[in-house]
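Narrative summary of target 7.
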Amino acid sequence: MQTTVDTITEIFAALLKRPGLKLTLADSPDTLNGWDSLTHPELITAIEEKLDIDFDFKELASIKNIADLVSLIESKQF
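Modeled conformation, tokenized:
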């Protein structure tokens, strides 16, 4: 079964055009080349569409790294 990190990694790799990308829970816009204010909305939209979930503005503002994103996604799936 695919983990949430695996799903996020696939989306990030595709949108950032970085095949073979390996995300860690500590990765953030500060450490991941290409994850910036311009690509963030695209990444979030792709995640919402792939996982059939919706984030509100307050939730989006709370995302500081991959760990935060994973926690937020998993809170909406269960």
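The chain has a mean pLDDT of 94.
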